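Example complex used in Figure S2.
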Amino acid sequence: MSYIAKPKVTHPGMPKNKLGLYARDYEGTVSTLCAGCGHDSVTAAIIQAVFELGVEPHMLAKMSGIGCSSKTPAYFVSQSHGFNSVHGRMPSVTTGANAANRELMYIGVTGDGDSLSIGVGQFVHAIRRNVNMCYVIENNGVYGLTKGQFSASADIGSKTKKGEANNQEPIDPVSTAISLGATYIARGFSGDKEQLVPLLKGALTHRGFALVDIISPCVTFNDHEGSTKSYAHTRQFYHHVTDIDYIPPSEEIKTAYAEGETMPIKMHDGGTIVLRKIDRNYDPTSRAAAFKYLRERSNAGEIITGLLYLDESRSEMHELMGNVDTPLSQLPLDGLHPGKEELKNIQNRFR
Amino acid sequence: MVTVNDVVIKIGTVNGTGSASANGLLRKAIFRMGIPVVGKNYFPSNIQGLPTWYEIRVTGDGYQARANRVDLMVAMNAQTYEKDLAEVEPGGWLIYDSTWPRSSLLVRDDITVIGIPFSRFCNEKFEGVRARILMKNIAYVGAVAALLDIDLDIITSLLEETFATKSHMIASNMEAIRLGYDYARENTTCPLPMRVEAMDGTAGKIIIDGNTAAGLGCMYAGATVGAWYPITPSTSLMDAFRDFCGQYRVDPETGKHTYCIIQAEDELAAIGMVLGAAWNGARSFTPTSGPGISLMSEFIGYAYYAEIPAVIFDVQRTGPSTGMPTRTQQCDLLSCAYASHGDTKHVLLFPADPAECFYMALTAFDMAERLQTPVMVLSDLDIGMNDWMVPELEWDENYVPDRGKVLSAEQLEKMDKFYRYLDVDGDGIPYRSLPGIHPKGAYFTRGSGHTKLGAYTEDSDAYQDVIDRLLVKWETARKILPKPEIRYSKANKVGLITFGSGDSACVEALDRLQSEGIGLNYCCIKAFPFGKEVSKFIEQHDVVYVVEQNRDAQLRTLLINDIEANQMKLVPLLHYNGMPINSSFVVDKVLAESAKGRAA
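Predicted assembly (951 residues):
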């Protein structure tokens, strides 16, 4: 129904955020994805997250590559700048954009083809640089736009619609990110908005590289029996290991959380993430423990979700480089060179 | 007969033995005597062990090209002795390390061979293997100084400047120089009949390589984001930018940087970073070479269609494929001009020497932002990594950077609605907004089909509307890009066109041909698309030689393609063996073509 203009109807009873905007103000154009696509649920969760955070739309930059997932930035926050780049190269464009203007909030939306096959190099290097961004992978294990080929995240034994089974090891973005030292690593499910919205809010406010890997079933090519990325399979095997609440800087923490089961973590924006452990033994601050736990559960066929690793102490790209606080793009050019006389002095070394 | 200030010295050494500083010392000393001089590196793709040469052309007339002859060979590398011996002009001289005997088979009666026991001297005088190797190279500076009559006081003062904080180094270096100097004086008749003599030919001049000049230009242009993947021969451009920024772009109070250099994982990422930064309003650039252009092509096409400024320096090297990474060519014209799939074409700038690398860095940023498109500066290894004598760089205090049509928050506020790809002024260039400036400025940047209002489209007319408008912009570019340099010798129907580093050899060749009574008109092209001056130049002549450094006559192809130049008139003169072009090549080819009766 993408040819129908989306009606902008606002019910007077709808809630407003701190900027006085409604959730509807964060919507985009009508999706052109298949009815029931997991990606549309992720879009809805992103809209909810930025609405609740009260992000100024024009201060949000929506970045993407190529693929079904990469189309979605058109479907949320029309009042934001979008950059739908080339296949697999969203991370480099975002790195450059962030280098030029560190004040914007960056959300990159990508898929398992875009980030784990053609763009896996850029994905890992953006982590290495600790680019301050929210990196969303809409992970469905399949190529949709080219009609159903396996992607690099397809599990061993998972079957195509025609019954062909994958026999290659999948690339798991979460364990990859842990091994590379990403500073915020979460996994969610497009069918669980309640869990997903706070994970996205935490990722957007985290200072540094925040990965949110979202199992987002492809209803057309990968939602059948025998697929390990279907709605039914995901619902059956996914487990919350943690749940989080994001508490903005302006609000007090009111709920009393039980010791051992909860862990409040102060964020750089002044907010707090309160992490509730479903499994008391899970330690989301230890890379080694998180990796071991994930591999064990994954081998048992479980899909572990929640905020899986968090390190608020690491410096992001600009801090590592020692850059000025002002966005580089806003520095007046005439202040960026030493002028006529100094050009003469510089040239003394060339005589 | 005595020849003064017209001598070519070639020094053959082993890569990684510190000969670069010794050679630089010689070249600088001659320059400080007021004598025009150029230095060319012929080096291997290697870190240590393979043969390398440095050629110093002392040129009282001020010519910049390679001379294509050797008068004095300093053959310090036994590995290449046979080749080096063969290369000396009849009547020339050769110095070698006589510590070890030479093969009795390697003899030439038509040159003078001077043996100096450099290794033995240095083994006696200095301790440690490394010091002995380094000092052996410094010692030949002394021998050459004695033979050519280079001022020893100037060499001393250069050493004092280099080792200002390490006085013991001055003494040991001078000692090594003295070894060579005194031995030459005692055992040969110094100076040789081919020698140097102080003159006044370097006032207001500097010696600089193109990559350093381009890096300096980027700093002066206000570039803040540089993303790159190291590749010979472009690497020293980013090294220079980093050095200049380290000096002038660090806040003295906070120590914080006003520049961001990112070493990318590959060239695809480097250009992606440049586009992201430029989209956000920063002046951003990437230096690369031919293989990098191949990798960047998809993004270059994206930037053309989505209309994002980008500055790319292509320091060309010999292709195809890996080719010869440390040899020069002008072989990326076509791949740059039409980089990427679909109907794309790109603005190119052609600096002819390091000074133009500096000025064209500024032009490149201005043009990229004015035209909202990638601009590629096509330098080459000869310009980028060799030492050229150019007029001192001048900063124009009245320079106002051209940031192009960027809307301010105030302008956006007053607008009813902003459309990113609407040609309001009829010059094919739309207005752009920068993210984060104003809510009304938001738009969606995409490489997929879009309408003139910026919306996604698969509608034929709406698609074609934008693609056609880009041609209007192309014609605007043609009008505002740097004009060619044109010189008329006298009324004549024969012209010569070249670009980039071809200029140095052609200018010298034109003088030589003039002295033989052949006057050619000259056009040195500075940019693509070609302006009407280039079309007019070709129309005026019956025959136009097109001198370029590639096998396939790529400039000639562009002339035929872009301005529909009459291909029957365009006679290609092609030099593509990887060595810098020289004037003799041009003179010989022109004479041969004239003899064939193709020229009037």
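Residues 167-187 of chain B form the longest helix (21 residues). The CA atoms of residues 433 and 441 of chain B lie 5 Å apart.
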